[in-house]
Structure formats: structure tokens, C-alpha cells
Amino acid sequence: MHYKNFFKSELKNLKEQGLYRDFRNIDRPIKSFPNADESFKNKEREVEVWCSNDYLNMSQHPEVVNEIVKTLLEYGSGSGGTRNISGTSTYHTELEKKLANVHNKEAALVFASAYTANQSTLWTLGKKIKDIEIFSDELNHASLIQGIKNSGAKCHIFKHNDIDHLEQLLKESNVDNPKLIVFESLYSMEGIRSPIVKIVELAKKYNCMTYLDEVHSVGLYGEEGKGIAVEMGVEDKIDIINGTLAKAYGQMGGYIAASSEIIDYIRSFAPGFIFTTSICPSIAAGAAKAIDIVSLAEQLRIRIKENAALIRENLDSLAIPYLDTNSHIVAVLINDPFLCKKVSKDLIDDHGIYAQPIFYPTVPKGLERLRITVTPKHRKEHIEKMIKALDTVWSKNNLPRKNINKVTANI
Questions:
Q1: Is 31 left (phi over 0), alpha (psi -120 to 50) or beta?
Q2: 127 in active site
Q3: What are the residues facing 27 on neighbouring strands?
Q4: Per residue in 139-162, pLDDT tens?
Q5: What is the pLDDT of residues 260-312, one digit of tens each?
Q6: Cβ(83)–Cβ(278) under 8 Å?
Q7: How much is the mean pLDDT over the chain?
Q8: Residues 41, 209: Cα–Cα separation, whole Å
């Protein structure tokens, strides 16, 4: 086999489909956000960032940064090993206590990333629980899908947020087999919530465990930013909650929160936890500080929702189609990979607005979009500039302005 030709051919096919990903260097100086320094193909300029997952700007919060620097200077840059072999510090255990408290659970377990937490936990459950059947929403994140798939467990895919279809699949399953329902509280590429209460009711009816990904809701919804499960009052009915340190908390790493028995089981059997170097003590310290700040940051949560509502109001006035939700995520629909990349390129090249194009495999083919994420640091003048630029680029590319902005499509 000519390996070089294989790789060349695969990349060529990717580009021909409009699915090749270009990385732009985005440097975010403290105190400048949402402005950042962008460099791409030897060109440098200042841009406004409209696609960051640093939802509450905690990565640049002075108290968080100071905590990281203080810990870094005292304990160095690395953890020294896996959690089992010298890589557990006071900072790790204290962080896990705080995370358990966030979700009103007995315990929590920190992983190198939320992707690893999902993949490794679901692999372990699917592999170790005999005859388990897993029920997974069709729009679940890749980390959830990979964990289930790699486990080899029997998996049923239910239509997105379709309670009737989920119940039909549950009825058809073996009544004696263990069951696990896997879903997200807020689907990140749509900004759409799941019917958590109804899913929990079904789980009780059919004796299922539940696994909820709260990555895009923790810090932003519920009392003290504890997430949508807490907001809906059902966190005690969710067996395992997955979250991240890399979005509302502005750091890196992921975790699960559950009963002490489940956490101890995953700690003891999950390869993605056992064989991975633990996160740096300084990052754990920064995340713990961010949790404290975010728990009191109700004004930031209010501001981000007000900003998202203002964006939707402006999109309505221009008849630019988007998925109609009340979340902090605004998905502007383009539905063509080449046009999606072109719109993104025109926005940054002509207007200094950085909104990354989203296409397959992140979203299904034919449902390409710009995923706009606003933060509390985006002011009214930033929003006005972005909307004006989007309006201009929309016209330049002759994109349709149909009255379909109230889209709640099954996607």
C-alpha cells in the first residue's frame, strides 16, 4: 500500500466536499476580550471572537489567574503522574468535593477532558454491566457515541428529543436487561434543551439508569449555575452527570458526578482515568476558584441571556434563519458546507468578525451553520457590529431571507 497516496487522497476528498478544517491562530490577551489577535497565512489583525466556549470569561478572571499563578509557582507545572501514581494532590481532591456539591451528588471524579470522561465512563459501563442495553439520543456528542460504540454494548438510537420513540424502544427491549439512557441537557450545536423531566419519568417507569451530559449548561443555568438538572429539580434522579471545566469555568478537564459507589467503581475500572496523567495542580486550583466565582455570578448569567436575546431580535428583523431557542447558543443556519465556510471567511476577512463554520461530522451534512456564542463581555456595540457584518455578508452571498427564523426542526 502506498500510504502517502492514501493520506493525500483522503485529504483531497475532504477538501472537495467542503469539509476540510482550517485552524486560525487566535491569541486572546487578558483584558482585550472579545477582541483577540488573529494570524492566518502570515496575516495578522485584531478580530472580535464570536465562537468561544469560554462562556463567562473565567479563563481571564484576575482571581482565577492569580490562583493559578500562585499554585504554579509553589508546586510547578505538572502533576507528576496518574492519579494512582503520585498524581493526586490536595487540589484534585478539593476540586472533586466542589464539583460534587455543584450537582448535589455524593462524589465526583476529574478526568483530563470531558470527552475522556464521557468516553471512558460509558465504555466501562457498557463493557462491564452484563447484557446492558443503552438508549442514546441521535444528536449526542461524539464522546458519548464513541464510548457506547467502543464498549460493544447493545445500543438503541432514539430520535432527537423524541419521548415517544424512546418509550417505544424501551418497550421493545428485554425487560430483564439492565438499561441506561444517555442524553444531554443542552445540545451544543443547536442550543436546544432536552425534555429532562420526561426522560427521568421514563427511566423510573422502565427501571433505567440515566447519564446526563451537562457540559454546555453547568455554570450558566440553575441556582448558582448548577446546571439544568438542578434548575428542573431532578438532579437526584440522574445517576451520572458529566461536566467540563473548560467552558463556563474557563479551564481544562472534565468530570463525572454521581453516588460514591459509582464514582469509586469508575475510578477503579475506567482505563481513561487509570492510565492518564492527571490535570496540573494549578489548573485544579484555578477551576476550584472559578467554581466559587461562578456560583455567585448571577449578573453574568443574566447578561449572557440578555445578549443572546438581543442577537435573536436582530436576526428576526433581518429574516436570517436560526434555530429558535432561549439558550446562550445561537445557531445561524446556512445548510451548505461551501457557503458556510465562505460566509465565515467573508466575516473575518472583510469585517474582523470571527465565527467558525460548523459542518460534518460536528453536525449532519446539509445542516451546516455558524454557531454564535455570546459572552457577558460582548457589549451592545459589539452585537451591532456583528449583526451589521452578517447582514452584509448574507446579501453578498445571496443567501435566502425566508421567514423561517422560528425553526424548531427535527434535526
A1: left
A2: no
A3: 37
A4: 999 999 999 999 999 999 999 999
A5: 999 999 999 999 999 999 999 999 999 999 999 999 999 999 999 999 999 99
A6: yes
A7: 96
A8: 49
Question: Concatenated DSSP letters for 274-303?
Answer: HTSBPPPHHHHHHHHHHHHHHHT-HHHHHH
Is the pLDDT at 408 greater than 80? The verdict is no
User: Domains of the chain by range and CATH?
Assistant: 22-56+297-396 (3.90.1150.10), 62-295 (3.40.640.10)
Residue with cell 428542573: 232
Residue type, 366: G
pTM of the predicted protein model = 0.95
For residue 367, the Cα-to-chain-centroid distance in whole angstroms is: 18
Contact yes or no for 38/46 (Cβ under 8 A): yes
| Beta bridge partners of residue 49, listed in sequence order | 354
3-state secondary structure of 333: strand
- Angstrom CA distances, 106 to 13, 175, 240, 363, stand at 49, 29, 11, 35
pLDDT in tens, 14-67: 999 999 998 989 999 998 999 999 987 778 899 999 999 999 999 999 999 999
Print burial letters for 388-405: b (CB count within 10 Å at least 16), e (below 16). Answer: ebbbebbeeeebeeeeeb
- The active-site residue, picked from 226, 247, 289, 342, is 247
Q: Residue 107: CA atoms inside 13 Å, Cβ hemisphere, count?
A: 11
Q: Round to whole Å and give the CA distance between 221 and 230.
A: 8
Mapped onto helix, strand or coil, the DSSP state of residue 401 is coil
pLDDT in tens, 177-224: 999 999 999 999 999 999 999 999 999 999 999 999 999 999 999 999
